[in-house]
Amino acid sequence: MVRRKWNLKDVAVGAALAATAIGILTFYVWYQTESVKLGLDIDACDQKIRDLEESIEALKVRRATLLDPGRVEGIARDKLGLADPVDGDIVFRKLGTPR
Amino acid sequence: MRPPARTFYESDIRRRVKILSFFLAAWGVVVALRLVQIQILGHARAKAAVLKQARDVVKIEPRRGNILDRNGEILACSLPSPSVAIRHLDKETPAEERDKVLKLKAALGLSAGEVGYVLGRLREGAGYSYVRKKVPEADAARVMGLKLAGVELEPGTRRHYPHGALAAHVLGGINLSGDVLAGIELRYNDWLKGEEGEQICYTIPGGRNYGTQIIKAPVPGRDLVLTIDATVQYIAEKELAAAAAEHRAASGSVTIMDPASGEILALASWPAYDINDFPGPENARMNRAIQAAPEPGSTFKIVTAVAARERNRVGYGELFDCSAGFIRVGGTVITDHVRENILSFPQVLIRSSNVGTVQFALRLSIPELYETARGFGFGRKTGIDLPGESAGSLKPPDRWIKNNSLPHIAIGYEVMVTAVQTLRAMNAFAAGGLLVRPHVVKEPGMAGAGTAVEDGDGPARAISEKTARELVDRVFSKVVEEGTAKLCSLDGYGAAGKTGTAQKYDFGLGAYTKNYTASFVGFTPLEEPRLSMIVMLDDPKEGYYGGQNCAPVFKAIARQVLRYLRIPPERPLPPRVLTAGLAKGERP
C-alpha cells in the first residue's frame, strides 16, 4: 500500500478555507444570536412600557375612585364632622374690590 | 491474469453485504413511500394538523376609549383583564385533564357548572375553550403560576366605572361578554371601540407561545368627553334618592341643563344600579328622564299659556271666575285641587287652576294649541344623544275629540311627554324663546352641540322673546315666589318654573287612579339663567303635589350647584341672626 504524500501548500489553503468557513459560520451564529437577544430585549422594554401605561391607567381609575364625590362627602361628614356652609358663610367678592 | 479465487469467508461477507444492502434499500423505499403518503397524498391534512398544533390566529382586542366628564374626571375606563383559556392536548389522559381543571377551580373559584362545562369541552377535544372571561390580573397571575400545559391567557380588557352608580343611565354599560347594550357606551360605540387587530401565535406542543407575529395592529378607541359634571350629577342623584325615599316614590328623575347651550350637566334616574354590575336589576334599567313618557299635568300649561299669549287671546289683566271649583266641558267635569275665587290670567297659572286654564284655552282652536305644542317639540324626540329616547305622544289634530281633547290637553292630559321634552320647553323661556337641543357629549361636531337648533323639521324659535320675557316676569317667577312652588324659593337667587301633578291612567281599569306623577320644571337665576332643571317623581305616596315634593328637591339641588359653580347671588341675602353660646363644659 502506497501512502499519499500531502502537499503543504494544499494543506495550508485547505486550512485557510476551513478557518474562513468556520469564521463565517461563527459570525452568522453570533449575529443571529445577538439579533434574537436584542429582539428579546426590545420586546421586554416594549412590554415594560405597556405595563407602565397600564399601571398609569389603573392609578387614574384608583384616583377617580378615591375622589368619588359620595366617598369624599362621606369622609367629610362622618369622619371629619364637617357640614354644609349656610348661605351667609360664603362671601362673594367682585374682582377688583378691596378685601 | 485470472483473479485469485475467493475464499469461503469472502463470499459469505459479500452475500451478507448484499442482504443488508437489500434490507437497507427496502427500508429506504418504505420510508420514501411513507413520506410520499404523508407529504404528497396527505399534504393538506398534515399541514392543517401542524398549523392547528403550532399556530393560532388570535384577534387582538383594542383598548376602548375612556369616557370623561366635562372636567376630565374618568367616568369609564378599560383596564387589562385577560381571559383564561384551555386547550385539549392529545397526550393527556382524562384523569390528568380533570386534575388540571380542579387546580384551575381552586385558583379561580370556578363553580361546579363551570368545571363541568370545561371538562365537557375537553372531552369533546375542543381546541380552545374559555375557562373564565375577564378575570382580575391577580387571578391571571395565580393561574400562570400553576404552569399548566395547555392553559393560557388571552389578553383583553374590562370596563371599569370608578364612580359605581354615578350617571349609570347616561353611561349605559358593557357586560362581561363585551356586549354594549345601553347609554353612551351604545350610542358612541363606533367612536369608543377602536379597531380589532390580528396576530399569529406560534406554540410548542405543550401549548406555550414561543413567538407572535402581528398581522394587523389594533387601533385604540377614542376618548369621549361628556357635558356631565360628576359633582352636579352626584348632587342630583343624592337629592333625588333622598326625595324618593322620603315621599316613597316608585321612581323618579332629575335632569339639569345649561339653558344657553343645551348641555346636560346631570341626568339622574332613580332607582339606579352599579354599572360595574351591568345590566343591573330590571326595574333600575330604564332611563326615566328620556324613556318614561307620562301625562305631564300642569307643567303643560306653559304651552297653553304661550298659545294664548302669542295670539293675544288673553290679557294679563283679564279675570276668570274659578269660584265654582269645577268646569263642565265636553261631557266631563274638570276640577281644581282647591276651590279658587276670581283669578287674573297670571294668577290662574301661579295657582295652577285647571278651571281658569280651561277657560282661556277654549279661546284657542285645536290646530292652534297643537301647533304651539309641536313648536315646543312635543310629540317628537328632542334629539338627545342617548339611545332609546321616547318621542312621547301628541295626537294629530284630526284625532282630537271635539270639545273634549282641547281642554284636557290644555291642562296636560291626553298627551304623553318625557321629562327632557318638558325641560326643553321650559328652557325656551330661559333662552329667550329659543329651543336648544339637549346633548350629553361635548365633543365638537358630534352632537350638534350648543346652538339653538332643531332637527330640521321644526322651528328653532318656539316663542317670541317678548312673550317669553313677559311670561317669566309676570307668571313663572311668581309661581316660585308666591304660587304652587313656594317651597323652591332660593335665598339670593330668583327662579322661575311650573309645578305639575297628574293623575295616572290605568290602562287595565280604563280609568284614572289615585296615583300621581309629580313634577317641577324651572330655571335659576332669573337674570342670567345658568341652570334649568326638571324634577319628576312617579307615584309618590307621601304628598303627591309637585309643589310639595319636587320643588324642594329643585331648591336643594340648585342651592348646592349654584354654590359649586360659584355663581354669585343676584339679590342681597336675607340678614342672618347670629347666635353665640358656650359649648358644654366651657367657661366664659
Please, could you describe this protein's structure?
Chain A has helices at 8-66, 69-79. Chain A has 99 residues and is mainly α. With 588 residues, chain B is α+β, with helices and mostly antiparallel strands. In chain B, the strands form seven sheets. A five-stranded antiparallel beta sheet of chain B has the order 14-13-21-20-19, sandwiched between helices. In chain B, strands 7-3-2-12 form a four-stranded mixed beta sheet, with no helix packed on it. In chain B, a hairpin with a 6-residue loop joins strand 13 and strand 14. In chain B, helix 9 packs antiparallel against helix 18 (551-564). The interface between A and B is medium-sized, with 21 and 27 residues.
Q: How can the largest sheet of chain A be summarized?
A: none
Largest sheet of chain B: 5 strands, antiparallel
SSE class of chain A:
mainly alpha
Radius of gyration of chain B: 37 Å
Per DSSP, the total helix count of chain A is 2
Uncertain residue ranges of chain A: none
Q: Round the mean pLDDT of chain B to the nearest integer and report it.
A: 88
Measured by DSSP, the beta-strand proportion of chain A falls in under 5%
Number of helices of chain B: 18
Categorize the overall geometry of chain A. Answer: rod-shaped
Keywords:
heterodimer, A: 99 residues, mainly alpha, 71% helix, rod-shaped, B: 588 residues, alpha+beta, five-stranded antiparallel sheet, four-stranded mixed sheet, 18 helices, 21 strands, 19% strand
